UniProtKB/TrEMBL annotation:
The keyword NAD is assigned to this record: yes
GO CC field: nucleus
Family according to the record: Belongs to the UDP-glucose/GDP-mannose dehydrogenase family.
Chain sites annotated for binding NAD(+): 8-13, 33, 38, 86-90, 127-128, 163, 274-277, 344
Record organism: Glycine soja
Name listed for the protein in its UniProt record: UDP-glucose 6-dehydrogenase
Domain of life, source organism: Eukaryota
Length: 478
């Protein structure tokens, strides 16, 4: 029986390994993590991450050919193939701070693999890493004193799943990318991994490349997607200034087969663990290679994203008579997109901090994000989702509540920051009746029916749509 070990039981490692176990009953899959709390959650009825369909997959395989464990060394030792899905956050200090990927977790995983391995292994990079990481990993593995006679093949097999649709994306991927050394041993390792995916993925969707192409493709993929969002968000600002409507512009663009319909929804900004990190990574690689103009081009994608978030905050403040001090603002949605509990780099963090900076009182409701997480996100910078205990200093002007009606009760304004479906079906007349007047709605995801809300009496701002007279008469934004 082939044995696989997945190191890192996070948003990428957990679902990916679970789907491999589901689709390959003849393969034994062990998912390991240094975090005891995370592993015990994977072994409980309340999984550590929310992802539609994940629970069913885990329930089908756990205890059969899928196990979760903190005994990292044992399972790495026994495995033929090791998938590494550890976190690679942006470095916060030292050389390349703010841009380069922090490979501390990767390096310690590689050192541990070298320490415990007694036979040849295929090591698969799943987490996004800077181009040529495989080279560094190979050096760590091969120069370990325990590694005498042991051969490692490093493969890059970047994950393209989106959170919220991870299981569907894994079950039915539009492509699987496998990069490896182009020597006979490398090609053999590529075939070994290809054989696993071939259990359920049609062969023509499995692309094989050299190592560096696979690593760079992942960064390029995310940079291209993020760039589309920043492009349409930049257009949204121009729409507001001119009276064009961004959804009509998107629709027109989407019919151009050279452009297509996806990733053209204007929003309060993109979030998630990948886009910003990967672009920063790309910028760093460009700068390291002396490609200043190319680096600046990609930096601009992030700048426009930051601009979109601050533009939203300014719009809220200027619309509400230039101050939100002491006013209650209901925040509907905190996750970086719908159908996930993940808040990493969610635009809600910057928007909430911006409003708090103007002394607003926030009442936050998200169907999936816990109060503890929201407090953690708003009280400190750059913290991974389960790495730190709860901050002792709660943000006083923030309360987290259990539903949208409670959040909006006696509020002066509402900000929609995540496109959860349930926000479309709220009884907005009831909401309006319980709010201070004039009652404002700022739709950061363009999911609401603006005309209906205006009929009820709300003053509505919706990204990239013509401004109503009220908002036009407010002082111009910088
Ligand atoms: C992304 C990539 O899509 C995936 O291929 C990669 O492997 C990991 O990163 P993910 O971070 O899960 O996936 O989310 P995604 O669906 O790409 O959305 C990212 C952000 O962009 C979200 O905040 C989302 O709300 C925003 N977005 C997306 C828009 O603002 N407009 C759009 O049209 C699409
Ligand atoms: P991603 O979104 O890329 O999956 P996460 O932060 O959700 O990122 O998951 C990464 C996981 O990797 C975390 O649960 C972390 O505890 C785990 N991890 C990091 N370093 C190691 C290591 N050396 N051995 C085992 N697990 C590790």
């Amino acid at each position: 029986m082939v044995k696989i070990c997945g190191i890192g039981a996070g948003y990428v490692g957990g679902p990916t390994m679970a789907v491999i176990a589901l689709k390959c009953p003849s393969i034994e899959v062990a998912v390991v993590d240094i975090s005891h709390s995370r592993i015990s959650a994977w072994n409980s009825n309340k999984l550590p991450i929310y992802e539609p369909g994940l629970e069913q997959v885990v329930n089908q395989c756990r205890g059969k050919n899928l196990l979760f464990s903190t005994n990292v060394e044992k399972h790495v030792h026994e495995a033929d193939i090791i998938f590494v899905s550890v976190n690679t956050p942006t470095k916060i200090r030292g050389l390349g701070a703010g841009k380069a990927a922090d490979l501390t977790y990767w390096e310690s995983a590689a050192r541990m693999i070298a320490d415990v391995s007694r036979c040849n292994k295929v090591v698969v990079e799943k987490s996004t890493v800077p181009v040529r990481t495989a080279e560094a990993i190979e050096k760590i593995l091969c120069h370990n004193t325990n590694s005498k006679g042991i051969k490692y093949q490093i493969l890059s097999n970047p994950e393209f799943l989106s959170e919220g649709t991870a299981i569907q994306d894994l079950l039915n991927p539009d492509r699987v990318l496998i990069g490896g050394n182009q020597c006979p041993e490398g090609l053999e390792a590529i075939q070994k991994l290809k054989a696993i995916y071939a259990h359920w993925v049609p062969e023509d969707r499995i692309i094989t490349t050299n190592l560096w192409s696979a690593e760079l493709s992942k960064l390029a993929d995310n940079a291209f997607l993020a760039q589309r969002i920043s492009s349409i968000n930049a257009m949204s600002a121009l729409c507001e200034a001119t009276g064009a409507e961004v959804s009509q512009v998107s629709h027109a663009l989407s019919k151009n087969t050279k452009i297509g319909p996806k990733f053209l929804n204007a929003s309060v900004g993109f979030g998630g663990s990948c886009f910003q990190k990967d672009i920063l990574n790309l910028v760093y690689i460009c700068e390291s290679n002396g490609l200043t103009e190319v680096a600046n081009y990609w930096k601009q994608v992030i700048k426009v994203n930051d601009y979109q978030k601050s533009r939203f905050v300014k719009r809220v403040v200027t619309s509400m008579f230039n101050t939100v001090s002491g006013k209650k603002i209901a925040i509907l949605g905190f996750a970086f997109k719908k159908d996930t509990s993940d808040t990493r780099k969610t635009p809600a963090i910057d928007v909430c901090k911006g409003l708090l900076g103007d002394n607003a009182c926030l009442t936050i409701y998200d169907p999936c994000v816990t109060e503890e997480q929201i407090q953690k996100d708003l009280s400190m910078d750059g913290v991974e989702w389960d790495q730190q205990p709860m901050s002792s200093t709660m943000v006083k002007q923030v309360s987290v509540v259990g539903d949208a009606y409670e959040a909006t009760k006696e509020a002066h304004g509402i900000c929609i920051l995540t496109e959860w479906d349930e926000f479309k079906n709220i009884d907005y007349q009831r909401v309006y009746d319980n709010m201070h007047k004039p009652a404002f709605v700022f739709d950061g995801r363009n999911i609401l029916n603006v005309d209906k809300l205006r009929e009820i009496g709300f003053i509505v701002y919706s990204i990239g749509r013509p401004l109503e007279q009220w908002l036009k008469n407010m002082p111009q934004q910088a």
